[in-house]
Design goal:
The chain is of the alpha/beta class. The chain is built from nine helices and 16 strands. This is DUF4832 domain-containing protein.
Length: 377
């Protein structure tokens, strides 16, 4: 994963030239070739400088809409951006931090993005103001605007209020309770920004507890480096690296020894999620039968959503699928495939999910070998 700013400093009150839009497009094409996903943010500065008037912000969003749609496959998530210093939704020079203007810009971003991609807001207070009731299991992933809004904290663990993240601090408890509920179903990430040893906010126990509570999927590895180094020194860095996002482990597969052609394959898989979060973009689940001799594959689509393989729990996937009557008899390896949902990436192994088990991953195919043989007769 990479974090990328699109800087619009030179175009605060003018249209973005097509040559610059083409440059952004080339960057996303390079990410696609390299097998990367991008956390994207548009900004008019990299510090406390001017942003743009509202009408120009909306025009710029409209200009980039085709790019956002054409390259959704490599855009992991869009940070709301555009407003204020660093595009972090504070210190606007054009009055963009009013709730009305924030909502206008957020709605424009959600309309510009494909409906299966999320936008992240910087401040929990904005989430509470815009969507007073947090998204839950019943409303998650339903395509509504609220279901597509996550959170990024760019001063994680930096002090009692995470340097203004929880503003006002008197409402921190309410904001955290809100995040506790909605982050199970939305994308969360960000970065640290300082170390406060006396407050113990950046120590390992606190970091692990809050990443688990708020379902963190990604974290800037290069900033703030002293905070990252503290986790290395205290010994939790490797655990954080393993558990950011999802970490799926096959607990067991219950598979019949044999099945007849034309009959139903009935089996189950138990998948433990030992990460802090789940995938927050759609992803199919496929069972692959691969003939041991010819290596011919037969794919069974499973009715399961990895976005609902809850962190800290084990999910049972039940398979009850008919086998074609003309399926050749013989021995088949069983494999689990979790490919990217976008057709252009679905066949690329580097975009498939790898299970945490040993000796299951096939780097050449993107399959997870269940180390089980099914006899078809």
């Amino acid at each position: 994963m990479v974090h990328s700013y699109v800087r619009l400093d030179a175009y605060r009150t003018s249209l973005v030239p097509q040559t610059y839009i083409a440059q952004v497009t080339r960057g996303l094409e390079a990410a696609r070739r390299a097998g990367l996903k991008v956390v994207l943010r548009f900004a008019y500065n990299f510090g406390f400088e001017a942003d743009a008037p509202l009408d120009w912000v909306l025009r710029h969003i409209e200009q980039f809409q085709p790019v956002l749609r054409d390259y959704k496959d490599v855009i992991l998530v869009l940070q709301a951006g555009f407003i204020g210093a660093w595009g972090e939704w504070h210190a606007s020079t054009n009055g963009l931090t009013s709730l009305t203007n924030k909502q206008t810009i957020l709605n424009a971003l959600l309309a510009a993005m494909p409906t299966d991609r999320m936008v992240q807001l910087r401040y929990p207070g904005d989430l509470l103001a815009l969507y007073p009731t947090p998204v839950d299991r019943n409303t998650a992933y339903n395509g509504s605007n609220q279901a597509r809004v996550g959170h990024h904290n760019d001063c994680f663990l930096s002090g009692p209020d995470d340097t203004g993240t929880y503003n006002p601090i008197s409402q921190k408890s309410a904001m955290q309770s809100y995040l506790d509920r909605m982050t199970e179903f939305t994308g969360v990430g960000g970065e640290t920004c300082q170390v406060n040893p006396s407050q113990h906010r950046t120590d390992c126990p606190t970091a692990l507890a809050e990443m688990r509570r708020f379902h963190w999927s990604y974290l800037n590895l290069t900033f703030y480096r002293p905070a990252i180094d503290r986790w290395r020194t205290e010994g939790c860095f490797d655990e954080i690296a393993r558990r950011l996002g999802y970490r799926f482990r096959l607990v067991r597969a219950v598979v019949p020894e044999q099945v007849s052609r034309g009959e139903r394959l009935q089996m189950s898989l138990e998948i433990a999620n030992e990460g802090f979060a789940t995938p927050f973009n759609p992803r199919p689940v496929q069972l692959v039968l691969r003939a041991r001799g010819t290596q011919t594959v037969y794919t069974v689509a499973l009715n399961s959503d990895p976005r609902r393989w809850t962190a800290g729990q084990t999910t049972t996937i039940t398979v009850d699928a008919p086998l074609p009557a003309n399926l050749p008899a013989g021995d088949y390896d069983l494999l689990l495939h979790l490919p990217d949902a976008v057709s252009g990436l679905s066949s690329r192994p580097e975009y498939a999910i790898r299970l945490a088990n040993q000796n299951t991953w096939e780097a050449s195919t993107g399959y997870n070998n269940l180390q089980t043989i099914l006899k078809v007769q």
